[in-house]
Amino acid sequence: MTCFRVYLQKPHTNSPDTSFLVSTHGQLKLSIIQEHQTLVVSVLEARVMLEESQGPCDSYVKVGMFPDSDPSKRQKTQMVPDCRNPVFLQTFYFAVSEGDLHKRLLFTMWKSDSTTRLSSLLGCMSFGMRSLMAPDREVQGWYYLLGEEKGRKNHLKVPTQQIYHRTEIDLCRNRSAHTLSPD
Length: 183
Known about the structure:
Layout: E1 2-7, E2 19-24, E3 27-35, E4 38-47, E5 58-66, E6 75-76, E7 87-95, E8 104-113, E9 118-128, H1 129-132, E10 138-144, H2 148-151, H3 166-173
Domain C2: 24-143
InterPro entries: C2_dom, C2_domain_sf
Organism: Channa striata
């Protein structure tokens, strides 16, 4: 887990602090476009998954609408073995009805343990379906994988230029995996 200071606007010396710390669990590169009531979702790659000391990372991504009681509507990438920066390059299609507009499109990244055959959640993020279906809306780029509670409700784009302080990162590493700073 890494922690970054996120600025809501450029920091000024005489302005109040408009930033917060966020704990992240890696990053996922996505492309989401809307074509005739269908979302075309490409899961491209991931990076900064786990530290070397945390062992091998056999990872995969699940994508689906949330909340949804039908697991058959969720889709999953192929598992990429022993890689902290996996490349998936997989595209999925989701037909969206009027009744789906209140849902969220949820991305969850999982680490598979080959010895126990169990998977553990590395992080997640989500996007509101109504905003994804807006005309000319296109999502592309790197997004942070957040903790489960935060990621089920939010997404956070990785800025092209990251601004953070080393002491903030070190402080955050000492917190529990599910602790996030205020919004």
